[in-house]
Write a structure and sequence with these properties.
- The complex is a heterotrimer of chains A (224), B (299) and C (120).
- Chain A is mainly α and 224 residues long.
- Helix content of chain A is 89%, strand content 0%.
- Chain A has one domain.
- The longest helix of chain A has 38 residues.
- Chain B is of the alpha/beta class.
- Chain B is 31% helix and 31% strand.
- Chain B contains 10 helices and 14 strands.
- With 120 residues, chain C is mainly alpha-helical.
- The relative contact order of chain C is 0.12.
- The chains are: A mainly alpha (224), B alpha/beta (299), C mainly alpha (120).
- Chains in contact: A-B, B-C.
- At the B-C interface, helix 6 and helix 8 of B face helix 2 and helix 3 of C.
Chain lengths: 224, 299, 120
């Protein structure tokens, strides 16, 4: 196997396993929560599951970005992997798995909330752009905490996570209520081409983030 | 010539220069002992020689062919060269289950297996059994000794032509240490691998090193065949004038004076012999004593 | 072959002496194969190159001979060779040293011979 193949194999299995574990945990927690809630189990479960899965996917981008770069990446280098190849493996695996996990939550969400379906078309590129934007933030924070110390990185990470959780929970509940739906529907139906631009912006930022990370890591003295 | 070459390696951390122009040639099929005090720069040197961290100045190349026409490869950022090297360093497991800590030993070993192109699973199984390691344990729950064993297993099972061990026996009890030396020798005898073992438990390991490299304060001060070195360096003691006469024109390390008696560590010419006389006593020194004489506080 | 290595002499010299001892004790017979350098390295936990050095001393002195592709064998007449060399070494390392030391202690030749008689 070439260096690239080895890295793809490893990173996919590692990221996949980690995300899988988180998902299993969430499904379990949400199931218990919904069970204890009393009312219609299936409905509560589905609604909460989508929200928590989305939140988890978003957060995992952050968590992974950090521990993958500071701990797992050096481990691959200690196994004699070329640095750039490992970064490629890491980035590809993270993106694919995260997008997949979002997609699962997305599809599940559409299934239980038929009102959202017409918005799905324009929503997809926006969500994609959003995911890429999150990756960008994750990379920037990894670079910042590397430059200015782990504590700052941790603080920034916490702040961002809170903001993210807030937006998702609030946004989701808002959307699920009557008023929000109409607003979002109007928003999305008018977006059209703009949604693709938003997506492209997100992707561009992501690419820049990866480039900055790679440049920083290329010749850095790794701490193992 | 099949060698791994370090030329003019300088390493600076900020303004602190820790390696001052190190030149080192490692030949295929030899066991080297890299000996130095804490902070001498052993880990830094091995890290650079294995292409895991960059040098500030200088170059590391490796050649895996006896054909003169074949150019040696640069090690840094070159997967073809990196495929020949394994530097199994101390595993740092932060408490808790983040990152590696959460992995089980068998997952960690599987990762190593994915990366090293010559990895030998059978050898890994044999070593796991030999060290009585529980591979289902989480890395964060391992003792220092068990972590050392994992490092050793990865290094040996990697079957990399150039394999570096950074203080592999740290944390191992004496029986486990003997097991390591035995297993390393067995593996060495069957392959044509190059082992570089850094240690500061010198005497124990001295017999398995074909050559020793003394690293002191960021410089290689000696690289010799172990047996020859031990034969050439002697401890001369006795009447001051006689000892001084012996020291004339010879490399001398570590002189001591007590009253009219003097003692000195002297390096003789290859094959030279110095006999006891009425006024001086000539004694052999072991590797550890030689190292202390050359790199100790009063050297 | 079961002696332990000491720290007093060079390892490879000890290896050669141990093989010689085994030959003198009929543990290794003439024309018999001697353990390979890798085996010796494993037994004593030493570098194979060191073991090889020890074996080569014996090849150079004629105590062992090499059969290409098979290994090292004990020469015919090895025992006699070893005894002859050890007697010469005995003279060099012990007898001369005794004489030196006796001189240092201010003893005469007769004093020394008297001592030897007493010890016998």
């Amino acid at each position: 196997m070439t260096g690239l193949e080895r890295n793809l194999k490893y990173w996919f299995s590692y990221v996949g396993k980690s995300i899988g574990q988180i998902y299993l945990m969430i499904v379990g927690i949400v199931a218990v929560m919904s069970f204890l809630d009393g009312s219609d189990f299936l409905m509560t479960f589905s609604k909460n599951l989508v929200m928590y899965l989305v939140m988890a996917s978003a957060m995992s981008i952050m968590v992974f970005g950090f521990s993958n770069i500071t701990i797992i990446f050096p481990t691959t280098v200690s196994f004699s992997s070329k640095r750039s190849t490992s970064l490629i493996g890491m980035t590809v695996a993270q993106h694919v798995m995260c997008i997949l996990s979002f997609a699962v939550a997305f599809v599940f969400g559409l299934y239980i909330e038929p009102n959202f379906r017409p918005m799905a078309g324009p929503a997809i590129p926006v969500v994609l752009g959003g995911i890429c934007f999150l990756f960008f933030i994750g990379n920037i924070m990894a670079v910042l905490s590397d430059r200015f110390g782990r504590t700052l990185g941790m603080v920034l990470y916490m702040l961002f996570v809170f903001a993210l959780v807030f937006v998702i929970v609030f946004g989701y509940n808002y959307l699920a209520g009557g008023k929000g739906e109409a607003l979002v529907q109007a928003l999305f139906t008018n977006l059209g081409a703009a949604s693709v631009i938003i997506c492209a912006l997100g992707v561009l930022l992501d690419v820049i983030g990866v480039w900055i990370l790679a440049a920083g890591i290329k010749n850095k003295d790794l701490k193992f | 010539m099949k060698t791994l070459n370090c030329t003019g390696i300088v390493k600076k951390f900020g303004n602190n220069e820790v390696l001052h122009g190190v030149d080192l040639t490692l030949e295929k099929g030899k066991i080297y002992g890299l000996i130095g005090r804490n902070g001498a720069g052993k880990t830094t040197l091995l890290s650079i020689a294995s292409g895991q961290n960059p040098a500030t100045k200088g170059e590391v190349t490796v050649s895996n062919s006896d054909d003169i026409a074949v150019q040696p490869m640069k090690v840094w950022d070159n997967q073809d060269a990196l495929d020949l090297i394994c530097f199994s360093r101390e595993i740092n497991v932060t408490a808790g289950n983040q990152g590696i800590g959460g992995l089980k030993v068998k997952d960690y070993l599987r990762a190593a297996r994915t990366y090293f192109p010559n990895y030998d699973k059978e050898l890994e199984d044999r070593l796991v059994k030999e060290f009585e390691l529980d591979v289902k344990k989480r890395m964060s729950k391992l003792s220092k000794g068990m972590l050392s064993m994992v490092t050793i297993i990865v290094a040996l099972a990697s079957r990399a032509p150039y394999t570096f061990f950074d203080e592999p026996v740290a944390g191992l009890d004496v029986v486990a240490r003997e097991t390591f030396y035995k297993i390393a020798l067995e593996e060495f005898a069957e392959s044509e691998r190059t082992f570089v073992i850094s240690t500061h438990i010198i005497e124990e390991a001295a017999d398995i090193f074909e050559e020793v490299i003394f690293l002191d304060k960021g410089q290689v001060i000696l690289k010799e065949n172990t047996q020859e070195l031990v034969e050439r360096v002697v401890h001369v003691s006795g009447k001051e004038e006689e000892v001084d006469a012996i020291c004339e024109g010879r490399k001398v390390y570590h002189v001591e004076k007590i009253g009219r008696s003097k003692a000195a560590t002297v390096m003789l010419e290859p094959g030279e012999e110095l006999k006891n006389t009425a006024d001086i006593t000539v004694q052999p020194m072991n590797l550890q004593q030689i190292f202390v004489a050359m790199c100790g506080k009063e050297a | 072959m079961n002696e332990i290595l000491s720290k007093e002499k060079s390892i490879y010299i000890q290896i050669s002496e141990m093989i010689e001892n085994d030959i003198l004790r009929d543990i290794l017979l003439e024309e018999e194969k001697v353990p390979s350098t890798n085996d010796l390295a494993k037994i004593y936990t030493i570098n194979p190159a060191t073991a090889a050095k020890g074996v080569n001393i014996l090849v150079d002195s004629g105590v062992l001979y090499k059969k290409r592709g098979i290994g090292m064998f004990v020469s015919a007449g090895a025992k006699k060779l070893i005894m002859k060399r050890r007697k010469a070494e005995f003279y060099e390392n012990y007898v001369r040293a005794i004489v030196e030391e006796a001189k240092n202690l201010g003893m005469t030749k007769e004093d020394l011979i008297k001592m030897i008689d007493e010890a016998n």
